[in-house]
Amino acid sequence: MADLNAKLEAKEDMEKEIEKIIANCAEDEKKKVETQLAGFRRLFGRFLEESGPSVRWEKVEPAGSSMQLYADLPVADPANIELIRSRLEKLVVLKLNGGLGTSMGCKGPKSLIAVRGEHTFLDLTVQQIQELNKKYNVKVPLVLMNSFNTHVDTQKILRKYHGSGVPIFMFEQSCYPRISRESLMPIDVDLANKEAWYPPGHGDFYEAFYNSSYLTKFINDGKQFVFVSNIDNLGANVDLNILSYLLSQPEDKPCEFVTEVTDKTRADIKGGTLVNYDGKLRLLEIAQVPKDHIDEFTSVSKFTIFNTNNMWVNLAAIKRLTEEKAWNMEIIRNEKTTDSGLRVVQLETAAGAAIKHFEGAIGINVPRRRFLPVKLTSDLLLVMSNLYTLETGMLSLSVRRQFPGVPLVKLGQDKFKKVKDFMQRFANIPDLLELDHLTVSGDVTFGKNVVLKGTVIIIAHHGERIDIASGSVLENKIVSGNLRIVDH
Q: Which residue in 346, 350, 421 sits closest to 380, CA to CA?
């Protein structure tokens, strides 16, 4: 009873704080803020009411036979231009563009970081859709879901794409108050204090898209599906086979949701995965896994696939589920410490967790080429190298690469974390065509035309510096602090 009273009090106290926030905001912002905080109210209410773990481990089973193999999908005939055009006319492409480049030492939207020559993530995205529209004489629109952190800067840069032939729209996802870990109340009611607010994860996409009015617009325009992906996943381009599969399902057995998964490797052990849970497909993130089962979850042998966050979603179904207030994705409690030292909680949800709400939802196990994220400068080294070729915004693994997959690269975060520092440490990007594994730690620089093959480990100890000379070829070598090179 005491616990129930405490929850009721917390709800009442939060209601008072929300009223203060609305009273504090400008008159022309009130409606927007009220709409967003309605979503926060529901999320906070669920957070108070839900107790215990979000999953019972004994009910978790690998997805197994619930998955569709990409190789088994019918192949769209590229010569049938009219059929492909008619299908593309039913598609919207949406990129999740809420992230900053802070993990790579950059200010501003991550989408504006140059990743290949002078081309940014956003440049490459626009080029891909531009080529698609030109080839099939369509106007597939690009939609950007920004956060309050990225909206203004993204808006400024869109002018450069006016002649691209790509209709570009954008909207801002919700903005929720960070709450104190101790009191569970907002740390500030002032919207101008950016430290007190956060974008609540990409699970907010469905309601934010609905609230933007673009969802209704696209449905009225005859669009049926939206392809959603992270803007920093350079492999997430429009796939005609998946689109054709979705649009060829019988009306009485629709497939309203597809999430793309791919085979797990050593580098993906922390990624979410699809599981069978109570007879339904469900997204399971590492944050939901009981501590004594983490090793089992990260094992490549039991859970062999992981979530790419590429999703294909039926627009009418998003509208229906939003209007039914059906969204009930698992809450991720994200604990943070602000720059000023406050210990806060962010309540977030994941877009892929909505899979349980859609009719006929499936996972498709796609080739690894559809998952090429750039989260760290280690990833940046790979995509900037000769491992990949670039054509009309699309990166493809070079045919000169003799081995399956890409190398495992680990660059020390003390010297290589920031893009600016990373670029200064390479006179040009080394030849990585025959590389399997690279580890670099400490104060290391690379001259021009360096070739790395097999397993290469370069470690400069504290106070030491290693300069890899121009033209060096390192194959299965360990380079230590005294520049001694030994066979590995």
A: 421
Distance CA 452, CA 474 (A): 5
Provide the Cα torsion 189, 190, 196, 200; round to 10°: 80
Q: Which residues are catalytic?
A: 375
Tens-place pLDDT, residues 247-259: 999 989 999 999 9
Which helix or strand (DSSP H or E) is residue 458 part of? strand 451-459
- Residue-level pLDDT at 265: 80
Which structure tokens are listed for 51?
Answer: 């107790």
Burial (CB count within 10 angstroms: exposed 0-12, middle 13-18, buried 19+), residue 208:
buried
Shortest CA distance to 284 belongs to which of 292, 274, 269? 274
∠ Cα 364 329 94 (to 5°)? 55
**Per DSSP, what are the bridge partners of residue 408?**
437
Q: 6, 335, 10, 42: which is closest to 184 by C-alpha?
A: 10
Beta-bridge partner residues of 458: 440, 479
The two structure tokens encoding residue 468: 């890899």
Alpha helices (H) along 385-482: 413-416, 419-424
Tell me which residues of the chain have a pLDDT lower than 70: 1-5, 51-53, 65, 482-488
Sheet containing strand 179-180, edge to edge, reads 179-180, 343-348, 332-337
Range 386-401 burial, b when 16+ CB lie within 10 A, else e:
ebbebeebbbebeeeb
CA angle 451, 454, 456 (to 5 degrees): 75
Positive or negative, the CA dihedral 109, 149, 273, 346 is positive
Helix (H, G, I), strand (E, B) or coil at 430: coil
The Cα–Cα gap between 320 and 335 comes to 32
Q: How many angstroms separate the Cα of 371 from the Cα of each of 231, 236, 275, 391, 412?
A: 11, 6, 19, 17, 23
Look at the block and give the residue holding tokens 């670029």: 423
State how far the Cα of 381 lies from the Cα of 422, in Å rounded to an integer. Answer: 9
Token pair 């919700």 is found at 174
The pLDDT assigned to 3 comes to 62
Residue with tokens 């002018």, as numbered in its chain: 159
User: According to the model, what pLDDT value does residue 488 have?
Assistant: 47
- Beta-bridge partner residues of 282: 275
Please list the residues that pair with 337 across neighbouring strands: 343
| CA atoms of 39 and 195, how far apart (whole Å) | 20
CA distance 84 to 240: 8
Question: Distances in Å between the alpha carbon of 87 and those of 235, 240, 316?
Answer: 21, 9, 16
d(CA 98, CA 87): 29
Tokens coding 315: 């627009």
For 201-224, what is each residue's pLDDT tens digit?
Answer: 999 999 999 999 999 999 999 999
